[in-house]
Amino acid sequence: MTNLFDGVPLAPRRGGALQLLIVARISTVHQDARSLDDQVALCQGYVASRYGGPVEVTVIQGRGSGELLDREDLARAETAAESGRHDLVVVEDLGRICRRSRATAFCEACEDSGTRLIAINDHVDTAAPGWQMNALFATFKHESGNKDTAQRIRRSLRHRFTQGGVVQTVQYGYAKGENSAADADLRKSEGAQAVYDAVFAMLEADASYAEVADWMNARGVPTGEWARNGRWDCTMIGRLVRNPIVKGWRRRNERVSKRVNKTGQRKSVKAPAEERLHRVVPHLAFVEPDRYDRLITRLDAKNGHFARGRARGTADGRAGVPKKRTVWPGQHVACGVCGRPMYWGGHGQAGRLMCSGARLYACWNAATFDGGEAGPRLAAAVLAVAEGLPAFDGAFRSRAQAASVARRSVRAADLARLDLEVAQAGREVANLTDAVSRMGFSEALRVKLGEAEGRQARLASERADLRRQPDDVPELPPVERLRALAREAVGAMAFGDPAFGRMMRRIVPRVAVLPHQPLDGGAVVLRATLTVNLAPLLGAAGESVGGLVAREVAVDLFDPPQRVAFRARLVDLRAAGRTERAAAAACGLTLTAAQRAMALHRLMQSAGATDPYCLLTEPPEVGGKFGRHRHARYRFDPLAGYPQWPGASA
């Protein structure tokens, strides 16, 4: 292999070992993971053939498309390149880092930090004059090859579909032969015709999708070979009925993927009319085309007002917004009964959050809470924790110092272990290299050598990361500084700002809500238990603090009724000698409301309770929205580790 540029030899800038960074990537989890080790071995061999001194190797490996610009491994590689800690970055080609102009920007970041970058197969060396043109042509080549491959695949699939091929998965009612990819080989399942006739008859009689799903489940109709869900639900019925294959039409390219240039991620959008393909397959029809079209038109008219924006004739406010980009605390608060996240839109109310398990009839906790009010309440709880922190006195600093010493001890032990393992891996590589030189080429020896070199590189990378960790303990700022940081991070941000949500997820790693009910009965409400950890606000100093500034707090996500809100004041007034009527008047309540508050107080005294609310560990018999556990579709299915209280009932 010839050198890319011989004018500047490889050498460490600061003396000592050459600090080498190797970036390796494969596109998907389906690719052979050994390719990562092969890339590392190629880069190590390239450096070893040109530099005979000691080398400290750091390896950053990743799996994901090169188009994705928000990959975690790419962010780590860019941070490492800009840090100036490395003397040399070596990659197989620039496409291993990323694609498009971001790859060239990576090269420029290396040049700015004084780090040399070599892309072996692209003949790019930032120490060579005019390397920019090579980098531009290389990125163009990778992007062009990517697009050409995509066009060839698209062309082949379109043609094969028109010839009756590209049969991948089929829904209930169809059987696919083994190794078959043609619609001519599909056949109808036995008994499916009667099921489809009944389903269409029910929908034509104005039955809901839920009723059809219950009917299918009651008769044990299978959901199909490729269905992940073992029971029918509304969504599955909608997909089943709306697939035009049931009228004898196969479709393809109804949607296409579009790249979001900022991140490289792809989103699914409706395909233009000229891209969509249909193929008539009358032998697969379960219903007449005219009957199918009439029913779909009727269902569209019946359900159209539920679609976002469509009922009011306005634009969809969530169009083009990723589902994961939601206003905090959406998709962050967990149900304490089943462990699933709470979603916006509880019981048809856009501003309320509800357990996603209850929607699936897998959890009985059907209580909701107002997200717009809950967000500021939770933020206020975080600020209260910050304001209530005591000053970092000597005892606190001693504990932080002890925690830091303990971490340094663990780090020293890990370094000693890695030194031994790196030395062992080095001996293994030397033995295999010697065996290859004595015995000549052997595929088995080549594979073992590649695995050993990859293992050696990974261990060296771990050791280099540990050695870069600071030995000293960062100075803890005054607690008032921490309070100011909390006010700035939480109190000064708008509730709907995505940055607010990101910050809250860092300092509030866990929020779980549990259903409660007043001791004397009534509405079921939700109380949140959250873990507040202010250490991330301190940066590097926060690592020495750890959990010392973490607190568990409870927050009511509801406004209490009158009898609960005024109970304590009424008790004080009665103890001061006021009559029941006078106490009620002083609180601005009716006599009946005051009597109910005092009755609740007596109930608390008899139960020895200090809290007017009790935790619900089983479905309450309050009716209304809390009836899902009585539905035939209900199957309590909590996540691992839930429920979180002893003796909880499903």
Distance between the termini: 67 Å
What is the class of the domain at 174-306 in the CATH system? Alpha Beta
CATH homolog superfamily of the domain at 174-306? Putative Large Serine Recombinase, Chain B, Domain 2
Mean pLDDT: 85
Q: Would you identify the regions where 5 or more consecutive residues have pLDDT less than 50?
A: none
Task: Briefly summarize what is shown.
By secondary structure, this protein is α+β, with helices and mostly antiparallel strands.
Kindly list the characteristics that best describe this protein.
650 residues, five-stranded mixed β-sheet, 15% strand, Rossmann fold, single chain, Hect, E3 ligase catalytic domain fold, 19 helices, alpha+beta
What secondary-structure arrangement, pairings included, does this model have?
Blueprint: E1 18-26, H1 34-48, E2 55-63, H2 72-83, E3 88-91, H3 101-112, E4 116-119, E5 124-125, H4 131-162, E6 174-175, E7 187-188, H5 192-204, H6 209-218, H7 234-242, E8 249-252, E9 255-259, E10 266-270, E11 277-280, H8 289-303, E12 333-335, E13 342-346, E14 349-355, H9 356-359, E15 368-370, H10 371-388, H11 394-439, H12 443-468, H13 479-491, H14 498-507, E16 510-518, E17 525-533, H15 541-545, E18 550-556, H16 562-565, H17 567-575, H18 580-587, H19 591-607, E19 613-615
Parallel strand pairs: 1-2, 1-3, 3-4, 12-16
Antiparallel strand pairs: 4-5, 6-7, 8-11, 9-10, 13-14, 14-15, 16-17, 16-19, 17-18
Helix pairs in contact: 1-12, 3-4, 6-7, 10-13, 11-12, 17-18, 17-19, 18-19
